[in-house]
Amino acid sequence: MRMTDTTGGPPDGLDAGSPNVARMYDFWLGGKDNFAADREAAERVVEISEGRVVRGVRLNRAFLGAAVRAAARAGVRQFLDLGSGLPTRENVHEVALGVRDDARVVYVDYDPVVCVHGRALLAGAEVGFAEGDLRRPDEVLGHPAVRGMIDLSRPVALLLVSVLHFVADEDDPAGLVARYRDALAPGSRLILSHLATDAFPEAMARTERVYQDASARLGARPSARIRGFFDGFELLEPGLTGPREWLDGGVRTDGERFAGLVGVGELR
User: Fold this and answer.
1) How many CB atoms within 10 Å of residue 268?
2) Closest by alpha carbon to 238, among 56, 57, 70?
3) What is the DSSP letter of 221?
4) What phi-psi label fits residue 70: left (phi over 0), alpha (psi between -120 and 50 degrees) or beta?
5) Which of 9, 144, 180, 254 has its CA 20 to 30 A from that of 247?
6) H-helix or E-strand containing 47?
């Protein structure tokens, strides 16, 4: 099912009048599941970032695919994607199943826009969808779709890709990550990306204001805070870095910088 407003408006129950963070991201990725309000807000961020946001989200997507592929090749067969967002090209299950046919993937999101797609497109023998809020770890981990497909006594790749910057400080994001970490078996991985304030503090502050009327507020964090999410994990090479450097094996170039940081940690 497509949600674009070029064919008569949104499905019943979906708010097309306010920017939605999942649909904004879809717009930057070149998708069609977005409305005028989403595109207007997304274009404002494009202007503020001088176009970097589009290149950055596509690099972030490439990081997600590469990190999932590496985890599968390392023997991880279970993937739990928290705050998964709208389905797009090279979804987690497509990447994982491309490496090993025994992979199991569960997507988790509470956004009604995402849930519409999740129920329609993602349920299958190897793929599950759980409607849940990552800020309630016990409910997520106890959801029937998670319990039915994910064996927590075996390694799991936990994905928190471009989602924790939508979790407010008062919700204790570090504590939430620790709660999930403590439920995982050794050999599990944390695949994480997060917007940082370090490189473009003024532009990031302006971007955060764009999200004040969106479906979730944006809160970028300093790199030191982001690194703290990996407490208890061994941060794998090339460490916490920009997506382009991560994809290039940590090589520092004179090229464009991006606001996002990415990294993969392993639980020993």
Assistant:
1) 9
2) 70
3) B
4) alpha
5) 180
6) helix 36-48
| pLDDT tens track, the chain, 268 positions | 334 443 344 454 567 889 999 999 999 999 988 999 999 999 999 999 999 999 999 999 999 999 999 999 999 999 999 999 988 878 999 999 999 999 999 999 999 888 887 777 666 668 999 999 999 999 999 999 999 999 999 999 999 999 999 999 999 999 999 999 999 999 999 999 999 999 999 999 999 999 999 999 999 999 999 999 999 999 999 999 999 999 998 776 656 889 999 999 999 9
Burial class (CB in 10 A: 0-12, 13-18, 19+), 186: exposed
**Cβ(83)–Cβ(108) below 8 Å:** yes
**Cis omega (within 30 of 0) for bond into 201:** no
In the three-class reduction of DSSP (H, G, I as helix; E, B as strand; rest coil), residue 113 is classed as helix
Distance of alpha carbon 264 from alpha carbon 48, whole angstroms: 29
What does the block give as tokens for 247? 């994809």
The alpha carbon torsion through 242, 245, 249, 251 (nearest 10 deg) reads -130
- Which two three-digit tokens encode residue 124? 């299958």
- Report DSSP letters for 191-239, one per residue: EEEEEBSSS-HHHHHHHHHHGGGSSS----B-HHHHHHTTTTSEEPTT-
What region, left, alpha or beta, does residue 85 occupy, with left being phi > 0 and alpha being psi -120 to 50 degrees? left
Look up the pTM and report it: 0.92
- Which residues are within 8 A (CB) of 198 and not within 5 positions of it... i.e. 6 or more apart? 222, 223
Bridge pairing between strands 157-161 and 189-195? parallel
* Contact status, residue 81 vs residue 51, Cβ threshold 8 Å: no
Q: What homologous superfamily is domain 14-266 in, according to CATH?
A: Vaccinia Virus protein VP39 (3.40.50.150)
Q: How far apart are CA 84 and CA 145, in angstroms?
A: 15
